[in-house]
Amino acid sequence: MQYAHITGWGMSAPESVMTNDDLSKLVETNDQWIRERTGIQQRHIAGPDQFPSTLAVEAAVKALTIANLRPTDLDLIICSTSSPEYIFPATACLIQDQLGATKAGAFDLSAACSGFIYAVNMGAQAIRSGSIKNALIIGTETLSRFVDWKDRSTCILFGDGAGAFVLQASDEPGGVLSAVMHSDGSGGNLLTLEGGGSHHPATETTVHDGKHYIKMDGNEVFRFATRVMASATQEVLDCAGLKMDDIRWIVPHQANIRIIQAAARGLKLPMDRFIVNLQNYGNTSTASIPIAMVEAIEKGQIQPGDKLVMVGFGAGLTWGALAAQWTGPLPSKGHVHPEQYRTFARLRSLVRRALRFIEGLLYRREL
Ligand code: UT7
User: Fold this and answer.
1) How far is the CA of 114 from the centre of ligand 1 (A)?
2) For residue 347, how far is its CA from the centre of ligand 1 (angstroms)?
């Protein structure tokens, strides 16, 4: 029997910070309203040269370093994102190329803010089935590119960032213990980004109508979120045969402090059992849970042996939860330096492009 352990973790956030006061210069809002209604104090915003893949690769290299794995040891890369760089190719393939993960399959997963939970579950299932040994799971977003900076009901919420986990197979019990995934497409209209897909391909009209911006019915999403956070947490514990007392930490999607407080009330738990860092990052969508996890591990809050639940909700509508036992890196020999592989990866990518070009010329001559 194989278990899927979380053996590496890393995060990355753009250095540029936008405070609530900065936002009050763009829209009719103020620091007090944003803090009281959301808990957010600042968010990180990607610069012109930062993309979901660049943030993801930074987080991934840190995760691989902790797991002591080379990019070439990876069998699978799953990138959860709602702000992919292109409709295709998948952002996961850009990450695969930048890392030099030459043996990995790579695909994107779209389940909005619940995506990281879905992705970890998919990676863990692949490991449990015995078909792979090492997976890289990434949540990465630059949703700031799709925010309407004139819409105060959404622009105050979102921030950019990435988080990554390495999952590895082991005979030792632990790691991912159970997961639940849910969806309700009847609420799809509550949180949308309509433009640029095949229903509304980009045209002057779609841009004129602002279909390239995030649109949200905040109150409805809020109501849905407060309902599902507690129920999904309880459900995933039941699946793992665990009781609430067995769990040291709940790591919720970092959308709004009032949603987390409502979940705490629903579960009859004190707030100090919840990991919260949304004050510093805002809502980074699928990246919010791994970013919160990484910060909590680095602060020493999450310790080896701790059992915890990650729980999220988002557009779709989607929601889900995952119970895990935190173990840390597996024992391994020697030290690998995944960072050094990035230079090789760049070179390799250039050489492969050049070879493909030459092959193309030769092929044309043969025709
Ligand atoms: O990852 C999932 C993504 N989405 C979410 O998690 C969003 C869930 N929803 C929420 O977090 C909240 O619904 C919001 C933060 C979006 C809104 O908070 P709210 O407490 O539900 O405010 P509201 O929309 O009910 O608006 C209350 C008032 C309104 O004014 P009136 O009509 O009472 O005069 C709004 O116009 O607050 C006003 N308002 C603002 N005022 C200052 C709305 N946005 C702002 C703002 N600054 N940014």
Assistant:
1) 21
2) 48
pTM equals: 0.96
- Cβ neighbours of residue 112 closer than 8 Å, sequence gap 6 or more: 82, 191, 285, 286, 314, 315, 316, 318
Q: Specify if 32 maps to a domain.
A: yes
**pLDDT confidence band for 331 (50 / 70 / 90):** confident
Q: What is the CATH number of the domain that holds 132?
A: 3.40.47.10
- The Cα 352–Cα 97 span in angstroms is 11
In a domain, 101, yes or no: yes
Nearest CA to ligand 1 atom 29: 153
The answer to whether residue 330 is domain-embedded is: no
Sign of CA dihedral 228, 229, 231, 235: positive
pLDDT tens profile 193-242: 999 999 999 999 999 999 999 999 999 999 999 999 999 999 999 999 99
Which domain covers residue 230, as residue numbers? Answer: 3-325
Q: Whose CA is nearest to atom 7 of ligand 1?
A: 218
Q: Which residues are catalytic?
A: 113, 253, 283
